[in-house]
Amino acid sequence: DAPLDVFTVSTMLHVCAKTRNLRRALRVVEEAGQLGVSPNGVVYGALIDVCAKCGEPERALEIFERNVAQRGPIDEEDRRARSFLVNVYNCMMDGFGRAGKPGRAFDLYRELVDAGLQPDAVTFNTLLSAASRGGDFQRACWVLETMTEWRGVRPDAYTFNTLIDACAKCGKDTLAFELFDRMKTAGLQPTCVTYNALLEVCGRRKLLHRAWDVLGMLRGDGVDPDVQIFNTMIQVCARCGDVEGAFRVFRTMENRGLAPGRVTYN
């Protein structure tokens, strides 16, 4: 058998992160220690990721402060180490965002910057998700403007989709469509997620004609609508009292071979 090493341990921890199995991850680290394999930064980073994904961001932060931050400042030229630290911060921010604590995620962002580290696109998209989950639209907009100030960091499709979705939750239809235009101007391809968020905005604001326009734009961009698109459009029609339109969308859905689900009939 191949000897156990830190790379094998970190790989096992990545599996635990994907399966959301914190108990197993802690046992892996414990058993590795009993076999003489002392955890290094990579192992602790993987364990932090498991904790964050399993809804234990405080434990992730504790492991970071006790075993990673204590190692002292990183050399300016050590790009690999600096990239590793940014990834760890991203994991912790994501953990706090998922736990409904966006303020803690933004605190970690400031800590990252104060440490002289360069945030990346994942950093800002993670902050966006945290703000969106927490219903903090002002912070979400701040993230978009701030990320463009960093060299080498540009908004991507995920960035705009998350912001448009935040607009949908707040009923900000004008800004949602402005962001959509900005997304296309940036050369980014809208997806079903993008169009579904726009339809959600139309539904909340009862903008039936605008919703039909969105479907037209979707087809014009060559995007194949999925079940969620049809479900949302049916809901828009229902909110606007357009029963005939709802049945028309339903028939189109069936003709495309898409199976209606519980959400469709509701």
Characteristic key phrases:
about 270 residues; single chain; about 0% strand; mainly alpha
Architecture blueprint of SSEs:
Elements: H1 6-18, H2 22-34, H3 41-53, H4 57-67, H5 79-98, H6 102-114, H7 121-133, H8 137-147, H9 157-170, H10 173-185, H11 192-205, H12 208-220, H13 227-239, H14 243-255, H15 262-265
Helix pairs in contact: 1-2, 1-3, 2-3, 3-4, 3-5, 4-5, 5-6, 5-7, 6-7, 7-8, 7-9, 8-9, 9-10, 9-11, 10-11, 11-12, 11-13, 13-14
In short:
72% of the residues lie in helices and 0% in strands. The protein has helices at residues 6-18, 22-34, 41-53, 57-67, 79-98, 102-114, 121-133, 137-147, 157-170, 173-185, 192-205, 208-220, 227-239, 243-255, 262-265. Helix 1 (6-18) runs parallel beside helix 3 (41-53), helix 2 packs antiparallel against helix 3 (41-53) and helix 11 runs parallel beside helix 13.
